[in-house]
Specification:
The chain is of the alpha/beta class. The protein has eleven helices and ten strands. Strand 1, helix 1 and strand 2 form a beta-alpha-beta unit. Helix 1 packs parallel to helix 2 and helix 8 packs across helix 11. The chain starts with 8 loop residues before the first strand and ends with a helix.
Length: 306
């Protein structure tokens, strides 16, 4: 495939030189013309992290194709929530649309033309806010007649979006009380326990009981009645789950075993901009909680044990 990516790419890096090297090797195959790089600063409490962060930043010196590079290197650690959201603010202030990759997100080459094609196709469609590259439920969707489908789950293991969509990001989940009162969560799933689980995640994010920017973005998409695009095949493998250096994904997860597939080009588009009936509920069980674990979570909540 004689292809070069002309859409700006934001790399979110931190302290894993090996993962950074693998992502850069993949980018070398598609030779992007513009790369933005955010790298958080080392945590003073973590011995040896300063050297790892320096090694990550040094990897950028190995970019050996014509490319404009812009960097946002933090002198001190600002954390995942503020760091990533701030990097995305910086990125979308500079570009109208772009692709976002974390250091442990290794995409298939077809991920890039997939994003570029859909960024162009849906640039003026306000409801479409997110183009995801990962699909943890591909066993349910690989036989779809189209190359992708619409969902209200915004997977961030490799994704793309527009400045106009990111402008709706609410890091502090503004309007959450109205969101709850008007039961807007029901658009995601009709199941009351699943609704309670997602609301609990959003409440914890709003209260800063977790360090997640991704749940804030998921809330922002839902709160604006937005849609996400999900490929019918998984296009990005997460290579960081289960590693000691991972921030939020230390436990081994079956989703990490889903390798990146190649999506046939040109893309086959759905005939309508709407979600397939019932699919988001099944995606919830795969990406969030299985039916059994969801019931267990609910019982523990009722008993006050969580």
């Amino acid at each position: 495939m004689d292809y070069r990516c002309t859409t700006p790419i934001l790399l979110l890096l931190f302290n894993r030189p090996k993962h950074t090297r693998a992502v850069l090797d993949r980018l070398r195959e598609i030779r992007p013309t513009q790369i933005f790089v955010h790298c958080d600063g080392p945590r003073e409490s973590v011995e040896g992290e300063s050297e790892k962060v320096t090694a990550v930043r040094t990897e950028l010196d190995k970019i050996d194709w014509p490319c404009e590079i812009k960097t946002l290197f933090r002198a001190q650690n600002v954390g995942l929530r503020e760091g990533v959201s701030g990097a995305l603010d910086w990125f979308f202030e500079a570009v109208e649309q772009g692709i976002v990759l974390e250091d442990d997100c290794l995409p298939d080459r077809s991920f890039f033309p997939f994003c570029e094609t859909l960024l162009e196709r849906y640039a003026d469609h306000e409801q479409v806010m997110h183009i995801g590259g990962s699909n943890v439920a591909e066993q349910l969707t690989r036989t779809l007649s189209s190359s992708y489908f619409f969902s209200q789950f915004s997977f961030v293991w490799g994704w793309a979006s527009w400045r106009s969509a990111w402008a709706k990001m609410s890091l502090n989940l503004e309007g959450f009380e109205d969101f709850v009162r008007e039961n807007r969560i029901s658009s995601l799933t009709p199941e009351p326990i699943a609704q309670a689980y997602m609301l609990d995640k959003f409440r914890a994010t709003k209260a800063r009981e977790n360090n997640s920017w991704a749940y804030a973005w998921a809330y922002s998409v839902l709160n604006n009645n937005g849609l996400s695009i999900v490929p019918s095949l998984n296009l990005v493998q997460n290579t960081g789950i289960g590693e000691a250096a991972a921030t939020h994904t230390k436990q081994l997860d079956r989703k990490a075993n889903i390798r990146a597939s190649s999506l046939a080009l040109p893309l086959t588009h759905p005939t309508r901009v709407e979600r397939p009936n019932g699919l988001d509920q099944e995606i919830f069980y795969i990406s969030q909680k299985s039916r059994i674990r969801l019931i267990l979570w609910f019982l523990l909540q009722k008993l006050g044990l969580r």
